[in-house]
Amino acid sequence: MAIIAPSLLAANFATLAEEVRDIEQGGADWLHLDVMDGKFVPNITFGPLVVEALRPRTSLFMDVHLMIEKPEAYVDAFVDAGADGVTVHVEACAHLHRTIQTIKARGVKAGVALNPATPAEWVRPVLADIDLVLVMTVNPGFGGQAFIPSTLKKIAALREWIREDGLDGRVAIQVDGGIAQGTARLVTEAGASVLVAGSSVFGVRDRAKAMAELRADAAL
Ligand code: DX5
Ligand code: ZN
């Protein structure tokens, strides 16, 4: 079954704890937290303080997506705040392998993200060292953008390499951006199993229904 990871970015920030409780009770699997620094991406969101504040309020897996420059400098802060997984962008890491080791040394799941124009090949050398590849299906920075169909080929290539390298069940493919009914089917058919969804879950009143519809649309 697909893992549904609602993205906090689309929640009401005036009542964050209630928003998180709502999706947790509604059947979410993970909570996706988008950290932006205004440099790597043209938007600013929040830092470890928000992760720390939410940690005692939820038992969901806290999936921190760092869209920041020099992410290696902030791994400890996010893990100390309560992150269960930390994902860094390959485009932001001069020493990607070392950064992955830094994350894993803290005992949390390590993810590597690829922007839409970044080739899948960039992550292949470290596939066996990580828990998750995040294929961005929009250009990172904002919620509510349209899904980019050319990312499907990248998902399929990664799925194939994961199989070839004997990593099935060890490395998950996550997608982020424009995931809703319809695109959930396309990405899961291509090989993704972790679906980040912002506006299609938090943007509607009945979040439980929205997540159930995503699950029903997913091909696994
Ligand atoms: C985009 C973020 C996403 C975003 C997705 O930069 O990484 O997590 O919240 O939002 P939707 O699902 O609305 O495209
Ligand atoms: Zn994200």
Any overview of this molecule?
The chain has a single domain, classed as Aldolase class I (TIM Barrel), CATH 3.20.20.70. The longest helix is centred in the C-terminal third of the chain and has 14 residues. It is an alpha/beta fold and 220 residues long. The protein has eight helices and eight strands. Strands 1-8-7-6-5-4-3-2 form an eight-stranded parallel beta sheet. Zinc ion binds next to β2. Catalyzes the reversible epimerization of D-ribulose 5-phosphate to D-xylulose 5-phosphate. Pathway: Carbohydrate degradation. InterPro entries: Aldolase_TIM, Ribul_P_3_epim, Ribul_P_3_epim-like, RibuloseP-bd_barrel. This is Ribulose-phosphate 3-epimerase.
CATH class reads: Alpha Beta
For this structure, the quaternary state is single chain
Terminal residue distance: 5 Å
Tell me the total number of β-strands.
8
Which small compounds were modeled alongside the protein? D-xylitol-5-phosphate, zinc ion
Instruction: Characterize the main sheet.
Output: 8 strands, parallel
Tally of DSSP helical segments: 8
Spatial ordering of strands, largest sheet: 1-8-7-6-5-4-3-2
State the CATH architecture. Alpha-Beta Barrel
Q: State the low-pLDDT regions, or none.
A: none
CATH fold-level assignment: TIM Barrel
Percent of residues in β-strands: 15-25%
Query: What letter string, H or E per element, gives the SSE order?
Result: EHEHEHEHEEHEHEHH
Taking all Cα atoms into account, the compactness measure Rg is: 16 Å
**Shape descriptor:** globular
Number of domains: 1
What structural category characterises the helix and strand content? alpha/beta
Mean pLDDT: 98
Fourth-tier CATH superfamily name? Aldolase class I
User: Could you estimate the helical fraction of the residues in percent?
Assistant: 25-40%
